[in-house]
Each structure stands twice: as structure tokens, then as C-alpha cells.
# Entry
Amino acid sequence: MFQNQKLLEKIKQKRELAMVSDSLISEMLDSYAKKYNIDLKNLKPLEEKIIIKEIRAELRNYTGRFQKSPKQKKKLLKEESWENLLQTHTSTAERLLFYPKLKTIIKSLHVKKILDLGCGLNPLAIASREYYYIASDINEEDLSIVGEFFRKKNIPGETLSFDLRKIQDNANELPQCDLCLLFKVLDILAGGDRKMRNVLAERILEKIKASYFLISFSTRKISGKEMRSPRRNWFEKILAKKNLRFRTFASTNEIFYLTHPFKE
# Structure
């Protein structure tokens, strides 16, 4: 039983947050309490309301932003309607026509093991029997669907709940891989804190043992309008700092960076 269980349960009363792991919410509550020197066991009603609101907001930014229609997922899973499941998630729905090209690029790398961080439902479109696939997320519902997909399709792989914000201390929990995928993860990981975003991006590139990284960013604003400058100069500076060569390619809604971990 986690500490502050009642507070945790109240946070998860929102349907879109119901499948977020208890351990992540518990850690967020502990961090909040330390930051503001608050005793979570003796909260006034107004204090509790504020904490619940702020933790929910952070969780939505981190994990609920791309969910489209969660009600349908159980039904579609039972029917093994994998393509329709991909359409229940905004990012995978947008990426649907681009997945064949992504799979071709991945195949050209001749990888044997893939680590997909913040995977969502990507594995339903990318995973195959040609390589071992480790799908990582903090959304337990998505991981459950991915795990069932692996079983039904006899795909070698596993699911792993991991909070990327803890990469500095918990990187040893992540396995070595040939290719690490991070699709639309880095921009939202730090909740709008650009300094922390940069720190986390550097730590991910340092801590994860991968031969290649394939990392994407949205090329559209939240409003849906195209960005004037979709390339991420801040990220390219980090890649240069790490002596990582890269090439870019784009879909209608995303720009992808494929890195090569060797010096010029």
C-alpha cells in the first residue's frame, strides 16, 4: 500500500488518469510535499483540492495529452482490431500512413533489439518477429494492450513501466538496445520547463546504451498550425555536444532525428 493512498485514489478518479501507475503518482506526491514542505496526511480541504488539481495537470501534460477515445480500447482489444486501436491515440493515428516508411528505415539498420520509450501504442505498428521489442510507458492501459498484442502475434518482447524523468538515478533499469525510439516525448517530458527538457535530453542520450536513436518532435502547434521552424536547434546543439551525427526526415506532422553514435 502506497503512502497517501486516499489522495492518490482521488487523483485517479479522472478517467483519463485511471491507468497511470500508482508508483508514479506516489513519487509525484512525495516530490510535491518536499518542494513545498507540506504534510500530506494533514491537509485542509482547500490544500488538498489544490494539490489534486496541480498533480492532475502535470499528469495530463505528461501522459494524457495524446489520448483520443479511451472508451473504445477494451472493445477493440477484444476484437484484435489493431489498426483501429492505433486510431484511438492522436499521435499514432496521425502516424498511420507513415509507419511503413518508419519500418523500412528501421529494417535498414539491421537491429536486433528495440527500446521504445513513451511507446504509447507504437508497437502495434512497428513491432515484428524480426527483433526483440521492449515497450516502455507509464500508462498501464497502453502497456497492457501492447503486451496482449505481443502474445497474440507471437512477437518477442516485453513491457516495462518507467518514468523517464528519473533517468539519472534509474537508468540501470533500462536494457541495452540497438535502437531507442522516442516519439514526441522530449518536448513534453519536462512540462514546459526548457532548462529541464535540455537536461533530460542530455541524460537520456548519455544513460541509454543504444547504437541508434530515432527521436521525433511535432511540427505543428497545439492549435494545429504548422510551425515556421520545425527543427529543434536546441536538440541539434546537444547532439553536436555529444558528437552524434544525425540525419532528419519528416512526415506531415513530425520531424525525425536518426542519430549515429560515432564521431565524425
About this structure: The mean pLDDT is 86.
